[in-house]
Amino acid sequence: MKIGIISDTHDNLDAIGLAVEFFNQERVDLVVHGGDFVSPFVSRVFEKLRCDLIGIYGNNDGDKLLLRDRFKEIGEIHGDPYSFKLDGKNIIITHHPDIIDALAEKYEVVIYGHTHKPDNRRNKALVFNPGECCGWLSGRKTVGILELEEMRAEIISL
To answer: What is the CATH number that goes with domain 2-157?
Structure first.
């Protein structure tokens, strides 16, 4: 299973469009969002995804009820942290980098956001942050691809 990973989109519609186009070209089976969509209007761009989305709220997501409503046809947005099982792997998403080490003790894959910095490491768990899709802080628009069967992840510059 191929998973697209994105975080910290912060209303950058052009960057989100690039990410959605990339994920569609890669034929990902699922997109995971690590938080900070920010405004509900970003759903217009995410509607073009050709797969489902699972995401969590970040610290900058304001109108959570409207975000959830606008994304109901696209996928699911949950509180933080959110865990689920996929292809037999225990996965958790958080927007809080201060808890990732503790989560890595219990889960096989830890996906996080907030720092706007890419992180791809493997110890007990695969810990992955795709960096910032928006590019506002670093000047780099990045996302990730996770090959779940191989437990291999990659940072992609858009």
So the answer is: 3.60.21.10
